[in-house]
Design a protein that fits this description.
The chain has twelve helices and 14 strands. It has helices at about 15-25, 35-45, 60-70, 85-95, 110-125, 145-155, 205-215, 240-270, 300-310, 325-330, 340-350, 360-375, and strands at about 50-55, 75-80, 95-100, 130-135, 160, 170, 175, 180-185, 200-205, 220-225, 225-230, 275-280, 290-295, 350. It has a seven-stranded mixed beta sheet with strand order 1-9-8-5-4-2-3, sandwiched between helices. Strands 12-13-14 form a three-stranded antiparallel beta sheet. A two-stranded antiparallel sheet has the order 6-7. Helix 1 packs antiparallel against helix 8 (about 240-270). It has two domains: about 15-245, Aspartate Aminotransferase, domain 2 (3-Layer(aba) Sandwich), CATH 3.40.640; about 255-375, Aspartate Aminotransferase, domain 1.
Length: about 375
């Protein structure tokens, strides 16, 4: 009898989300209302921020951050190459130039030393005005924010934390998101909690928060009781249905996070010290949005993915390398070997199933199947 394939990711839904949706539908208020405000307050409290602005996605959140900080034509934004390209894409959207920075091989996070080098090269070659850095807390592990913020201060850059994968994560005891000027989160289905799609901005700057709310709502605000369009904004409003789902998900978040940590530690235990499979950094503050191993250079990842599929497990690439994308190679003449660690992680990284529905037996079988697949390939 064929077993059903174990998915790479699976949202932690149950009947409580269904009841929350029913409540909103029956109430009749379905966009940007009290559910959204409650959800925002919960995220702000969790991450020690005075303000949270819920939006339609993490990408929309980045877009608004750039806009309220006045980043645009002639400006340069720095971000890690090994990450989903939202930060780079939105820099392009506002007319700024994205510059990719390599990452550290153990944590997969931005390399502060390479960040300084890239900023200096930018200044020496006069390619634009360095304005901001977007450190990405990759897969739920916080960036070395002390080192990144030190570089940012040295060159006068704003820090926008991309915590899309890092809800509930800490850096040396401080919650991520509000360490920099602004921070963003994503609630995509592959994240620890999901609203289907959705995102949020957090900041301790009240004026920036006010401007974020104007940008997300068509550029309008109410002045002396009268609607006024202050700027040409977007419709990035989160729905009440999404927020209601998010509130239920947040109520389960401690349980979800504990389970994800248990799964990660079980993987570490079952892989032990296999030399052909490089394991990620095992840090206590990691929240494990994904568990990505790095295959030996002799392994063909596509073949391994196929073998794992036959064994009953959905696996895939961990992330992408922005500097290897066609658009950025054509526009800025990037070559794959310009950022060798990002290139290797992009080509050899393998994400394994990680969600709350995994049993210990699933994890053991997954690890043994991967070890066998690697030994055969």
């Amino acid at each position: 009898m064929n077993r059903q394939k174990i998915p790479l990711a699976k949202p932690s839904f149950d009947g409580r989300e269904v009841e929350a949706i029913k409540r909103v539908i029956q109430g009749g208020w379905v966009v940007q209302g009290p559910e959204v405000e409650d959800f925002e307050n919960l995220i702000a409290e969790m991450h020690g921020a005075r303000n949270c602005i819920a939006v339609t996605s993490g990408t929309a959140a980045l877009h608004i951050c750039y806009l309220v900080l006045g980043i645009g034509l002639g400006d340069v934004v720095f971000m890690p190459s090994f990450a989903w390209p939202s930060a780079a894409n939105m820099a392009m959207a506002v007319g700024a130039r994205p510059v990719f920075v390599d990452v550290l091989p153990e944590t997969y996070n931005i390399d502060p030393i390479d960040l300084r080098i890239k900023i200096q090269q930018c200044l020496e070659n006069n390619i634009g005005k360095p304005r901001a850095v977007v450190p990405v807390h990759e897969f739920g592990l916080a960036v070395d924010m002390n080192a990144v913020t030190a570089v940012a201060r040295e060159f006068g850059l704003e820090v926008i934390e991309d915590a899309a994968c890092a809800l509930g994560a800490y850096h040396k005891g401080s919650p991520v998101g509000a360490i920099g000027k602004m921070g963003i989160f994503s609630f995509h289905p592959r994240k620890a909690i999901t609203t289907g799609e959705g995102g949020a901005i957090v900041t301790n700057d009240d004026e920036l928060a006010r401007e974020c709310r104007v940008w997300r709502n068509h550029g309008q605000s109410v002045l002396e009781g009268k609607r006024e369009f202050q700027l040409a904004g977007m419709n990035y409003r989160m729905t009440e249905i999404q927020a209601a789902i998010g509130k239920v998900q947040l109520s389960k978040f401690p349980e979800i996070l504990n389970k994800r940590m248990e799964v990660a530690q079980s993987y570490f235990k079952n892989f032990n010290k296999n030399t052909s499979i490089k394991l990620p950094a095992n840090c206590t503050e990691h929240t494990w949005q994904s568990f990505m191993v790095v295959l030996d250079g002799d392994c063909d990842r596509d073949s391994i993915v196929g073998a794992m599929s036959k064994a009953g497990f959905e696996c895939g690439s961990g992330s992408v390398a922005g500097h290897c994308a066609k658009i950025y190679q054509e526009k800025f003449n990037y070559k794959p070997d310009n950022l060798p660690i990002s290139e290797r992680l992009c080509n050899q990284g393998l994400a394994l199933p990680l969600h709350t529905f995994l049993a210990k037996s699933d994890i053991i079988r997954c690890a043994l199947s991967l070890i066998q697949a690697v030994s055969e390939k």
